């Protein structure tokens, strides 16, 4: 049993007076005067026992105050002790028991009637850099980490977007699922008076219900995204999670394909104008070449080729002229010096035959001189025959020299003619070169426009093919698995314990509140 302090038993508790400001009293009178409280005494000092002295009677008041009339014991709240609290709890046992029973019953009823939730988790790696299928892709990957995190956050928002949820609803036909679109008993009656689209209302209700069941977050310092989905059935939760992942990948592919399609469409619209520019530029080149006679073969003007060939022919004709002149001069010198029989410059079949006969006859004459002497008639006949052969050799040499002179004259006139023609063609080359300066400008313009057109054409075809390629780098590293237990509500035992704790706390609070009220109102004496 709680025992009051000795100071209180010995009557040493000082009395605190509350002065009134007026006849009617004030709310400040309800607050005890803390300044009048005695200073704390040392525990080792024993206060002397004083005789019991009755407190002085309060001054007469014009009328009863509010606190004395309705709360006669409000000023003595400081004297409440633990024994009073225990007394109040003992008197409020029935309220504690009632609150405990009601809360436990409520917890049990909620555990039995509450709709269960089964939560599944799917882990995905959302790589901000897409697959490098095409070397020059439409989308540029930023290597900065902040930009990559923004890319992942954007894709995270797409994961729970309405487009993805709409795909899941259409695929799984959630508008006909009572878990997402709860049928109303007055739906048929309201449909008669409503002019709205019931299908759109069902889709909107399904989107709202599904969005409440889906949550996605990114793990710190990583590109891993955790998808959280709950449903009333574990298998349905897994199905929803897989369907959301598939719809997410399809949405990303469709988004990139549509972006690439817009770029390809713009390029195709530009190709017509580029094609016309290239055609006009090439037409200007051909018209200018035709007006100035700038014919080309193998990428070179015909005039340049002809001038080059004429220069080559002039060099060959000059070489032949020099050879013919040298040969003719040698022949003329040999004839003038009487060396036709031994000069090698005279070459012909007749000359070769005559020289052979001459040499053979010369050998016979030498033999006859040794055998017969100088006066022999056969030697004279041989000498006469030698003279005849020498005359034939000289005649053949003159004939060969005349032919050499004709070759010399022909080569000289050919050289002169080729030189004149080369000079004329050289002047044409200078004229064509001046015209070719402007022609090169036209050709450069045509080549530039053709290169731009070919680049745009190849790019448009590449982007058109890019629409058919999925380059999104989304990987599922942990598939959703059916949970073993529900995520909400907790187990019945936990709910009962929580209900009991809540009921106990509520009962204790009610008992203390009722006891305090009775004490303040003066309906219950203080515990002795």
From TrEMBL:
Tyrosine-protein kinase G-rich domain boundaries: 437-513
Q: Where are the transmembrane segments?
A: 95-112, 494-520
Regions annotated as coiled coil: 257-298
Location within or outside the cell:
Cell membrane
Membrane topology designation = Multi-pass membrane protein
State the Gene Ontology terms under molecular function.
protein tyrosine kinase activity
Keywords associated with the record: Cell membrane, Coiled coil, Membrane, Transmembrane, Transmembrane helix
Q: Where is the composition biased (Basic and acidic residues)?
A: 1-17
One GO location term (cellular component): plasma membrane
Q: What is its main location?
A: membrane
Q: What is this protein called?
A: Cell shape-determining protein
Q: Which organism is it from?
A: Sinorhizobium glycinis
Q: What is the lineage of its organism?
A: Bacteria, Pseudomonadati, Pseudomonadota, Alphaproteobacteria, Hyphomicrobiales
